[in-house]
Design brief:
By secondary structure, the chain is α/β, with parallel strands linked by helices. It has eight helices and 16 strands.
């Protein structure tokens, strides 16, 4: 190699060395500019990733997966565990279930009216000691007693058939006399019947509306008189109303075409609670003028009306009401005055029956008046003459049926 070639290589090496030294000095004097700083964000705590690794034993992992679990309230580490709820009752050892027994002790309410036979006046000022109540012949202990005089809820059930105008005339006069004696707080409805029933006026406290409805009863439709069916429908309607109710039957008592027999309607009347029936017969004057006339037909008619009178008496008696058989129009005001006194003025007696069986049987009732020594109570007038009186109460009641 020549000396010239070696000299060129040496100069090139020296140049490279000086160039590298100059570049390093330039970098040291002029560093690279940094980008503008962004505003510092608050550091978020790093969330700890749940451990989803399976346990070494190979069983199911804990509740630390992606399922969201409800957050539990924080409790102090040294807080005691909550105490278990106290049981309502403690059972004896060895018994899992204790049978319970619930007994309903029924109460029977009896409305009793005491009316003098001569004057038809209500007898006031009687005390609980003056009453004896018997159920199926067994004496009962009275636990409640008070005198009742309150507004009435009554249904006026009138026979309106095309038989004879005398019956319609008597019916309208009787219904008018009853409506005239109503008070502003009374609720009264009017229903008529011939072959079928018809509600003329629903329950109202407007006496004028009832009087107008009575005055409109002019032209009947049928000659049939289905008293039994009409009475059954009237009781069915009244049974939906709570409290004591009354049915004022103004009719001849004849039944010509009813689906129900007398035995069935009598059983229905006995089994319907809280309903008292008063009956007023119509056609008394006509019957008095034609009674006892010769001929088979007249005799059969008289027998039919005698049977009708007996049925009207029975309906009233078994429910604690009364029956009336007027012959003249002038008797109507006194009759309905007696009915109003009987309805509004009564003694309410409450007792718990000694027979607590709920077997649905019919229980016979009997009410007597006694004095302080237990003898039958006697009344006297101003001349010390004995006065007869009637104790008006239901003939009985039907016990609740057994629970199935």
């Amino acid at each position: 190699m020549s000396i010239r070639f070696q000299s060129r290589i040496f100069r090139l090496f020296v140049a490279i060395v000086f160039a590298g030294a100059a570049f390093s000095a330039s970098v040291a004097q002029n560093p690279t500019p940094t980008p503008p700083q962004q505003p510092q964000q608050p550091q978020q705590p790093q969330q700890q990733q749940p451990d989803q690794t399976a346990p070494d034993s190979g069983g199911p992992a804990g509740d630390n997966g992606p399922i969201a679990l409800p957050k539990k309230k924080d409790q102090p580490a040294d807080a005691p565990p909550p105490a278990p709820a106290e049981p309502k009752f403690k059972q004896p050892e060895g018994m899992s279930n204790i049978p319970t027994l619930h007994i309903d002790v029924p109460e029977v309410t009896v409305d009793v009216g005491v009316i003098l036979e001569k004057t038809h006046q209500f007898v006031p000022s009687l005390k609980p000691e003056n009453f004896r109540v018997y159920e199926d012949g067994n004496p009962q202990k009275i636990i409640g007693f008070k005198r009742v005089e309150a507004p009435i809820t009554a249904l006026l059930l009138c026979e309106f058939s095309a038989t004879n105008y005398n019956f319609i005339y008597d019916m309208r006069n009787a219904a008018w006399a009853f409506a005239e004696q109503l008070r502003p707080q009374d609720y009264v409805a009017l229903m008529t019947f011939d072959l079928r029933t018809q509600i003329v006026t629903d329950f109202t406290q407007d006496k004028r509306q009832l009087l107008e409805a009575i005055n409109m009863l002019r032209m009947p439709g049928f000659t049939d008189r289905n008293l039994f069916d009409a009475l059954h429908e009237a009781e069915d309607r009244l049974s939906r109303i709570e409290g004591r109710k009354y049915i004022i039957v103004i009719a001849s008592g004849r039944d010509t075409f009813s689906k129900l027999t007398f035995d069935k309607i009598l059983q229905s009347v006995k089994n319907t609670p809280d309903i008292t029936i008063f009956t007023v017969s119509t056609g008394g004057a006509l019957r008095a003028m034609t009674e006892g006339m010769g001929g088979m037909r007249s005799s059969m008619r008289d027998m039919d009306y005698l049977q009708a009178d007996n049925e009207m008496k029975t309906f009233a008696k078994v429910t604690g009401g009364n029956s009336y058989f007027p012959r003249f129009i002038g008797e109507m005001p006194d009759i309905f005055s007696d009915i109003n006194n009987s309805i509004r003025s009564k003694y309410e007696i409450i007792y718990r029956p000694s027979n607590t069986k709920q077997d649905g049987t019919y229980r016979k009732l009997r009410v007597e008046l006694v004095d302080n020594e237990g003898h039958p109570l006697a009344f006297q007038d101003e001349k010390h003459k004995p006065l007869k009186y009637d104790v008006i109460a239901r003939d009985g009641y039907k016990a609740k049926p057994a629970v199935e």
